[in-house]
């Protein structure tokens, strides 16, 4: 982030600390909505948040409620505020995390498998069916993208609704469990594919491939984060 951007974030933090608790809850709900829908570290976004904070502080000094700034519909106010601000590309963001997820999946699965082989004094080589191995990685990445996208989508739909904790997070859990069960079914079907060339490979190499995916995902994420593009 540029120096002006960092200064704005510091000022925004100081202004937030001046707010009474009765203003903070509404402010934090609106801020979370803004962060989800815009590039959080962008200077334009910070400037918009800064103006919003100053309006709240002014309303607080005058003894007015936050509705004097936002109106009765907080979601409509937030949508108007982020209009024209740099938007977060959820699919790109999810794609980067999906690469990391594929790496974590390979690393976890084959590390566990190697531990069992170590206990049984078995060799660390395994035979993989190339088409099913590649298809499983694609499916893992696809479901990773779908999960992140759906979580963002659900959040946008239920933002500012006065739902109970259990109702809100129960919906997220339902989405997550539903996708996970579908993923398990697809993975099982893919693992039963017995066509195409097979390859005998040391599991260390598959673990290294997983580590490479994780590192690549983190590097791309940091570069995009610094460039405010995801």
C-alpha termini separation: 14 Å
Query: Which structural category fits the helices and strands?
Result: mainly alpha
Taking the sheet with the most strands, its summary is: 2 strands, antiparallel
Shape: elongated
Question: How many individual β-strands?
Answer: 2
Number of domains: 2
Low-confidence spans:
none
Major sheet: arrangement of strands: 1-2
Along the chain, the helix and strand elements come as HHHHHHEHHEH
Q: Whole-number average pLDDT? A: 85
| Total of helices | 9
Protein name: DUF1129 family protein
Transmembrane segments: 90-112, 132-155, 169-189, 201-221
Keywords: Membrane, Transmembrane, Transmembrane helix
Brief summary:
The chain has helices at residues 3-17, 21-37, 43-61, 67-70, 74-82, 90-119, 130-158, 165-191, 203-227; strands at 125-129, 198-202. It is mainly alpha-helical and 230 residues long. Strands 1-2 form a two-stranded antiparallel sheet.
Could you walk me through the main structural features you see in this protein, from its secondary elements to its overall organization?
Helix 2 packs across helix 5 and helix 6 packs across helix 7. With 230 residues, the protein is mainly α. The chain is 76% helix and 4% strand. It has 2 domains: 80 residues, Orthogonal Bundle (c-terminal domain of poly(a) binding protein), CATH 1.10.1900.10; 138 residues, no CATH class. The model has no long low-confidence stretch (mean pLDDT 85). A two-stranded antiparallel sheet has the order 1-2. It holds the Pfam family DUF1129. InterPro entries: DUF1129 (IPR009214). This is DUF1129 family protein.
